[in-house]
Specification:
Elements lengths: L32 H15 L6 H7 L4 H14 L2 E3 L5 E3 L1 H12 L3 H16 L2 E8 L2 E8 L14 E2 L5 H9 L2 H15 L5 H14 L2 E4 L6 E9 L5 E10 L10 H16 L12
Antiparallel strand pairs: 1-2, 3-4, 3-8, 4-5, 6-7, 7-8
Helix pairs in contact: 1-3, 2-3, 5-9, 6-8
Length: about 280
C-alpha cells in the first residue's frame, strides 16, 4: 500500500537548497543533505525486524515525526518505502530490487582477495583463499609473506577434506553428500580412515568456533588456521586461512594468528551481507 501525501504544507517531494543545482554531478563535498536524511530513515527500516510506526521510526532516525513523514511521502512515491494497512512503514519493492542488485554484484573472491595481504601481514604467515570446486577445496588465491612456506600448495591446488584445515571447514558447513566420496577416496589413499565419530566431533567444533586449526597433520612442521566465509543467506562461499612453519606461527586459539583469521573472516562476511548473529545453513 502506498502512502497518501498530506495536502498543503506537507505535500513535499524533496527539500532542496539553491546550491544543490550548482553541482549536478554530485562531486561537491557538500552533497545533497536531503538524500542523507532520507538514507537515515532507510537505514532504520533496514535494521528493524519489521514495520515501524511513524513515531518509532522518527525517534530511531533522530528527527521529528513531521519531518520524517515528509521524507516518507517522497520515499513512498519512489517505491523505496511502503505503508501497510495498520499505518506502519516498511521497505518497499524498489528497496528490495536495489538490495538484490547490490548483492548480485558482490564477489566473495574479489572481496576476500582484497583482504589477503592484510591477513598475511597481521598473522605473519602465508594467506590462502579457497573455494569449493568439482574436486573439492581448491586454492584460488595465495599471498606469501616474508617467510614463505615451502610446500606444494599453489593456486589451483586441491586440498584434502579430511586432513587440511581449509578442507575440514568446507566439510563442516557443506552437506555430507557434497564431500563424502572425496573423503572416502582420501582415507583409502592415505591408508588411515580413523574414527568417524572423531571426525564428526572435529567438524562440530569447527561449526561452533567458525574457526579451524591444524598443527602438523596435513604437512609436518606446518600449522594452519582457517575460517568460513558466508554469503548473505548464510551459505559458505569460500574459506580463508593461513599457513606457517610451527616455530614461527603461534598455534594457540587466542594468539595473534588465530585472531587475525577470525577478525578478517568476520569483516569479509559482513561485506558479503552475512550478519554475525545469523546461523549458517547447508547449501
Amino acid at each position: 500500500m502506498t502512502i497518501q501525501p498530506l495536502a498543503g504544507k506537507f505535500d513535499f517531494a524533496m527539500e532542496r537548497k539553491p546550491e544543490d543545482d550548482d553541482d549536478p554531478t554530485g562531486r561537491g563535498r557538500a552533497g545533497v543533505q536531503s538524500v542523507e536524511v532520507a538514507a537515515r530513515l532507510l537505514d532504520v527500516l533496514a535494521a528493524a525486524s519489521g514495520a515501524l510506526t511513524l513515531k518509532d521510526l522518527a525517534a530511531k532516525a533522530q528527527m521529528s515525526a513531521s519531518k520524517a513523514h515528509r521524507y516518507l511521502v517522497s520515499l513512498a512515491r519512489t517505491g523505496l518505502v511502503e505503508q501497510d494497512a495498520t499505518g506502519r512503514y516498511d521497505l518497499g519493492i524498489r528497496a528490495l530490487s536495489v538490495g538484490l542488485a547490490a548483492l548480485g554484484r558482490i564477489d566473495a573472491v574479489r572481496i576476500a582477495t582484497d583482504e589477503l595481504e592484510r591477513l598475511s601481514d597481521d598473522a605473519g604467515a602465508t594467506a590462502v583463499l579457497a573455494v569449493w570446486g568439482e574436486h573439492g577445496a581448491t586454492v584460488v588465491r595465495f599471498q606469501e609473506n616474508a617467510n614463505p612456506v615451502r610446500m606444494n600448495v599453489r593456486v589451483g591446488s586441491t586440498l584434502p577434506v579430511t586432513q587440511s584445515a581449509i578442507g575440514q571447514v568446507f566439510a563442516a558447513f557443506l552437506p555430507r553428500d557434497a564431500w563424502a566420496a572425496i573423503a572416502d577416496a582420501e582415507w583409502d589413499r592415505f591408508g588411515e580412515r580413523g574414527e568417524p565419530a572423531v571426525f564428526a566431533a572435529l567438524l562440530e567444533s569447527v561449526r561452533v568456533r567458525r574457526l579451524n586449526r591444524n598443527i602438523g597433520v596435513y604437512i609436518p612442521g606446518v600449522s594452519a588456521f582457517a575460517a568460513p566465509l558466508f554469503d548473505t543467506q548464510g551459505r559458505i562461499s569460500a574459506v580463508i586461512g593461513i599457513l606457517g612453519h610451527e616455530p614461527s606461527i603461534a598455534a594457540a586459539w587466542d594468539a595473534a594468528p588465530a585472531r587475525a583469521v577470525a577478525v578478517i573472516a568476520r569483516d569479509v562476511c559482513r561485506q558479503l551481507g552475512f550478519q554475525d548473529d545469523a546461523a549458517p545453513v547447508a547449501i
